[in-house]
Design a protein that fits this description.
The chain is α+β, with helices and mostly antiparallel strands. The chain folds into three domains: 78 residues, Immunoglobulin-like; 289 residues, no CATH class; 237 residues, Endonuclease/exonuclease/phosphatase (Deoxyribonuclease I, Chain A), CATH 3.60.10.10. 13% of the residues lie in helices and 32% in strands. A six-stranded mixed beta sheet has the order 19-16-11-8-24-27. Strands 31-32-30-29-40-39 form a six-stranded mixed beta sheet. The longest helix has 29 residues. It is globular and about 70 Å long. The chain starts with a helix and ends in a 6-residue tail after the last strand. Keywords: Signal. One of its GO terms (molecular function) is 3'-5'-RNA exonuclease activity. It comes from Myroides pelagicus.
Length: 666
């Protein structure tokens, strides 16, 4: 009996073992390991006939048999991104405002970019309607804006003497037809921070100043200039006057500190308005008129406005204001519903171009493209860093470099971001503010504006803080990829708030990276990368961190730890150290960075400018920084104070710096 029982147990064991082996074999046979498949992405840019990006267009992706695979809506920048695509042929269809256009897409062995142009022309942006358009502004030259003829400035103990000719501000314009001003006069008026009166552009006094354009001539498609008599590029300073541009076509000049305007305008030390110490500026304007008679009723043929706020430029009660053109690329005397809005600041006439910090010499390019009949691309401002030392910047920087206004006979102008200027590198640090129910705006409301603010600055490298909401991380990574950026971040080791570093993948290659932790009363983190600049064949070390608010002592510890990170990992490379450090300029923690000697670190930002505004738009403290080491040479830095219909993208303003660095082979 025992033998039978033993045999029975053995049989049962054998059957169980056999069945388990059989199951395992069946599992292996029925579930073979999948071969890896290369996947790719397609970036689709949807634009209207004037090449302006279209937001919220629906883009659908189909296979060649007409089966829909997926769909995406375009972002604020007109981009829809399709990922995880296998090699093959597809069809894209973009739809918006009852207009549809399709394009073929073939994925081979790389990501693809496709542009789809819809047959849409915005009603208020159609015709140029002016033989002259405003294309650039030098509103903040280095030195005194209106230094009068016969006066001097001295530097370096008197070894450098600058002899002034009369005024350094000027306006750049583009002729869209041949004009002989002797026979066909025009005039140009500037409005400088004046609270508008019933006389509008003709107010005079310190508010508006007029130049009559009554002599000289200009050829179609060429630039000409109006402004001060100095005729230099960007002011003056300790190395003398900036580059002489008297060879340009100057149609009207005045020593405006000593001379009256033509018909109205008192002598003034500043023709064009600048940012105040708090970074604010009531909108300043420039207008061009046919003829030389300008009254409160005269309608300009072109006008632009720049600044940070439109408060005070339109008197709603009295219906006073600065008249705008009948129709231009940015303004119209009627809205889409036919409502009259003849003044700037009224109705939809609220577009403000950006402006640089005061006393730095940088130039406002207004961009855009036209064929003299239609606006092919709307004007959109960019700030061009210019040196105030002679010979270091040139007239070509404002007449032929990227971002200038284009005159073309081709009705297709591709919107492009300007390539980095030779030898220059730009970086942004931005605390984007995590999603918090107590804030006036949710992250969902702000996300498109955060993206637009970043993309509009056209920087090479971006470091973000409070990048801590998972859905937003995925969304922004996708949008930044569509705009040409790759990134480094480590979610797992960042206490839920990774310090992401985005970089232009066309320019940089990631060579090394790491995330580090700062464990004090409050856990914080930072990250660093080493990037190879493929344009310059040079490597840089960049670190991005966010320090605690708990105590100055903990921030001092964070500063010392970041310096140790730099010492241990930078390999002697040029250093950029950015972030929200939660410390005031000249506080003990910030002085730790300033006292560093190997390498020596310099603050790129004007410490009088506030970066944290608590959603108010009025700066309260300075806590965001960009530090750099040699051989980086600072060209320009700024605090970007930008809101969208009174909605702030964050409770911080982003900070941006642009550097020169000499090429050196690795």
């Amino acid at each position: 009996m025992k033998n039978y029982l033993k045999i029975f147990i053995q049989l049962i064991t054998l059957l169980v073992f056999s069945s388990s082996c059989s199951y395992q074999d069946d599992f292996i046979n029925k579930n073979p390991e999948k071969e890896s498949v290369n996947l790719y992405s397609a970036t689709v840019l949807v634009v209207d006939k004037m090449q302006a990006p279209i937001q919220s267009a629906l883009v659908k992706l189909y296979d060649t048999k007409g089966k829909q695979i997926k769909s995406e809506e375009t972002s604020l920048t007109g981009v829809a991104l399709f990922t995880e695509l296998q090699q093959g042929e597809y069809v894209l269809k973009a739809h918006h405002d009852n207009k549809e256009q399709q394009a073929n897409l073939e994925i081979e062995n790389q990501d693809k970019q496709v542009k789809i142009t819809l047959d849409i022309v915005p009603e208020s942006y159609l015709k140029v309607n002016s033989p002259i358009i405003i294309t650039g502004i030098q509103a903040a030259p280095r030195g005194s804006d209106g230094a009068a003829n016969g006066t001097t400035s001295t530097y370096q103990g008197g070894s450098i003497v600058v002899h002034h000719s009369g005024g350094y501000e000027y306006i750049q314009l583009l002729a869209l037809q041949d004009i002989d001003f002797n026979n066909t006069p025009y005039s140009l008026v500037v409005a400088n921070n004046g609270i508008v009166s019933d006389k509008g552009w003709a107010q005079g006094g310190k508010a508006t100043y007029k130049f009559d354009l009554v002599s000289g001539s200009v050829k179609k498609g060429t630039f000409f200039y109006v402004g001060g008599k100095s005729k230099v590029l960007s002011g003056y300073g300790s190395c003398g006057k900036s580059t002489d541009i008297s060879q340009a076509n100057w149609i009207a000049t005045k020593d405006y500190k000593l001379e009256q305007g033509d018909g109205f305008g008192d002598p003034t030390s500043g023709l064009l308005g600048n940012l105040s110490k708090d970074g604010q500026n009531t909108a300043d304007g420039i207008a061009v008129f046919k003829g030389t008679q300008v009254t409160s009723e005269t309608v300009p043929i072109d006008a632009v406005f720049y600044g940070t706020t439109i408060q005070g430029v339109f008197d709603q009660n009295n219906q006073w204001g600065y008249r705008i053109p009948i129709q231009s690329d940015r303004y119209s005397i009627e809205d889409k519903q036919g409502n009259q809005q003849p003044f700037f600041g009224q109705g939809t006439n609220t577009h403000l171009f950006s402006q640089p910090d005061s006393d730095v010499g940088n130039f406002i390019k207004l961009g855009g493209a036209t064929d003299a009949k239609d606006w092919l691309e709307l004007r959109s401002s960019s700030i061009v860093p210019l040196s105030y030392c002679p010979g270091e910047s040139h007239l070509s920087d404002i007449e032929s470099a990227q971002g200038v206004t284009k005159y073309t006979l081709n009705d297709q102008v591709d919107p492009q971001l300007p390539e980095p200027l030779e030898g220059q590198l730009s970086i942004m640090s931005f605390n984007i503010r995590h999603d918090d129910a107590s804030d006036p705006y949710s992250l969902e409301q702000r996300k498109d504006y955060i993206l637009q603010l970043i993309i509009d600055q056209k920087v090479d490298i971006v470091g973000l803080q409070e990048f801590s909401d998972n859905w937003f991380e995925l969304w922004l990574q996708k949008q930044m990829a569509a705009n040409g950026y790759d990134y480094y971040m480590d979610e797992a080791n960042s206490y839920g708030s990774p310090k992401v570093i985005f970089y232009k993948k066309s320019r940089f290659e990631l060579k090394d990276s790491q995330t580090y932790q700062m464990n004090y009363a409050e856990n914080r983190s930072g990250s660093w990368v080493i990037l190879l600049d493929k344009f310059k064949n040079k490597e840089y070390f960049i670190t991005n961190s966010h320090w605690t608010t708990v105590s100055s002592q903990d921030r001092i510890s964070s500063a010392k730890y970041v310096l140790q990170i730099i010492k241990d990992n930078s390999k002697g490379l040029p250093v950029l150290c950015i972030g929200d450090f939660n410390g005031q300029p000249n506080s003990n923690e910030i002085n730790v960075l300033k006292s560093q000697k190997q390498p020596e670190l310099f603050n790129a930002l004007d410490e009088n400018l506030k970066t944290f505004h608590k959603w108010s738009g009025t700066g309260s403290t300075t806590v965001d920084y960009i530090f750099y080491s040699r051989p980086f040479t600072l060209i320009h830095s700024s605090v970007v104070r930008k809101s969208y219909d009174k909605l702030w993208p964050s409770d911080h303003w982003p900070v941006v710096a642009t550097f020169n660095i000499e090429k050196r082979e690795l």
